[in-house]
Design a protein that fits this description.
Structural class: mainly alpha
Number of helices: 22
Distance between the termini: 37 Å
Shape: globular
Strand content: under 5%
Mean pLDDT: 91
Radius of gyration: 24 Å
Largest sheet: none
């Protein structure tokens, strides 16, 4: 038999095989749409073997849209200004993994080895992220059934194609959930996965809030336990205690270690684009030609405007210049279909947060620093949401507001699916509210527990209308996403 954690492992593996199969079938059956999007220039002198053609045939559907940027950076580095919108950890991992693959499978060329490396990295990171997400859900929700169902829903999430395509979603989700779990455990080394998440995606910066919150709450609990009531004298005594000073230093170290790689990245970008004038000598000729034809800004160019700003950070400038990202920039009539596409996940996130605030109004308003531990345990047993979700509610609130007002709205689906656990917790809790799910009966029927891939929604005998709606949304977006993305059609 398979326990919940082991079931999640095998279902995560099965879901990735299914996604790879679907994108292959859809890519073979339907002609590609010619999208006005960036395509990394190919070196015409590069040899192409029969094995390279096989890799292209099998996985070409995973190289669409932003995948072209990651392939380009893995091959050539940051040769164009617009590539600076993509952070370096994921393409760097691809580059080194591809080099190892080429040493073993020497018949593959650079392009094929990069595609193979990216798919392997995504597969490994996705499976690990599913297991870590189950562990995180079990700690926060304190309910095996709900945690298990949340992890299964994660494996078929609405943005699932992006977790297998050459995108950084799987790596970022793994690092983010791992950081969340270690923050709860008050792990002193939590800064390292957070710093890696920041080097993967820009919104990784928000993850610093998790260890800060749990450390501050521990300090508050220590203060209340020792002194009871607040006064200026007791506060001064507490702040100058050795244990308090150590905790404050630990928080400062966490922040410094977390953001240090980000600062170094900005310095690196500034040096290659704003200081050095001889970078073109290191860039292959076909890359230079492609950049000239398409008017891309090359390293060392005198037209790189962000170099002259007071704080020369390329990311926000590049996002605004090439993708028109900014406050309310996307609110135009022609974008209404994209708003409709993003509506389900925004509705789920907002509903989850509203329901939590209604259930735990005082706890929410006091940031979780007032209610006593015994009351927290009682509330967690009788209410839909445990109070421990509070910091994730604030995180989800920030991410949702950011998506609504600043980003291309359709991106909300994959951005939230890879960053916030709330969508899965809300849907799993909603499905577990029905009479067919309870702690005594377990997560699965006996038949399913003997299967690596068969999970509850395949054999569930009774479905509420909410169950049907949730599964239709998740499975519908997963399948349609595989079709749309693999054929270069616009998706989330």
């Amino acid at each position: 038999m398979y326990g919940p954690r082991r079931k999640i492992f095998w279902f995560a593996v099965t879901s990735r095989i299914t996604v790879l199969s679907l994108q292959f079938i859809f890519n073979i059956l339907c002609p590609d749409h010619y999208a006005d999007a960036f395509r990394s220039p190919r070196d015409k002198s590069e040899r192409v073997s029969v094995y390279d053609n096989i890799i292209t045939l099998l996985f070409n559907g995973l190289t669409r849209w932003d995948g072209q940027y990651f392939i380009h950076i893995a091959k050539y580095g940051y040769t164009y200004e617009n590539t600076l919108a993509f952070y370096p950890l994921y393409p760097t991992l691809i580059r080194f993994s591809a080099a190892c693959i080429r040493k073993v499978f020497y018949s593959l060329n650079v392009n094929s080895s990069i595609i193979t490396a990216a798919i392997l990295i995504n597969g490994i990171c996705f499976v690990k992220s599913a297991i870590i997400f189950y562990d995180l859900s079990k700690v926060v929700l304190k309910n095996t059934n709900t945690a298990y169902k949340a992890a299964v829903l994660y494996c078929i999430n609405p943005a699932t194609i992006f977790f297998s395509a050459i995108y950084s979603e799987s790596l970022f989700a793994y690092l983010t959930y791992y950081s969340m779990l270690k923050s709860i455990d008050l792990d002193i080394y939590v800064a390292f996965p957070i710093s890696l998440s920041i080097l993967t995606r820009s919104n990784g910066m928000v993850n610093i809030g998790f260890p800060m919150y749990f450390q501050l709450r521990r300090l508050y609990n220590d203060f209340v336990t020792k002194y009871g009531k607040f006064s200026l004298s007791t506060l001064c005594q507490f702040l100058f205690k050795m244990t308090t000073l150590k905790s404050i230093c630990l928080m400062c170290n966490t922040v410094i270690i977390s953001i240090a790689p980000f600062v170094l990245l900005q310095i690196y970008n500034y040096i290659i684009f704003c200081v050095s004038q001889s970078n073109e000598m290191l860039i292959p000729q076909h890359i230079l030609n492609h950049g000239t034809i398409n008017n891309f800004e090359l390293p060392g160019s005198s037209n790189v405007e962000w170099c002259d700003t007071m704080l020369p950070v390329a990311y926000s400038y590049v996002q605004k210049k090439y993708w028109n990202i900014g406050f309310f920039k996307y609110y135009t009539v022609k974008q209404i279909p994209n708003f409709i596409l993003a509506l389900p996940i925004l509705y789920i996130m907002i509903t989850c947060m509203i329901e939590y605030v209604i259930e735990h109004t005082k706890y929410f308003c006091t940031l979780g620093f007032v209610q006593r531990a015994d009351k927290i345990e009682i509330c967690a047993k009788v209410k839909k949401y445990p109070t421990e979700m509070l910091v994730f509610i604030f995180h989800g609130l920030f991410m949702t507001i950011f998506c609504i007002f600043f980003v291309h709205i359709q991106v909300s689906t994959r951005l939230l699916c890879s960053a916030s656990p709330l969508i899965y917790w809300y849907c799993a809790s909603t499905m577990c509210c029905a009479s067919h799910c309870n702690e005594k009966r377990g997560c699965e029927c006996i038949e399913n527990m003997y299967s690596k891939w068969k999970v509850f929604f395949f054999t569930q005998k009774e479905y509420t209308w909410k169950d049907k709606l949730i599964l239709t949304y998740f499975l519908g977006y997963a399948i349609v996403g595989c079709f749309m993305f693999s054929n270069f059609l616009p998706w989330t």
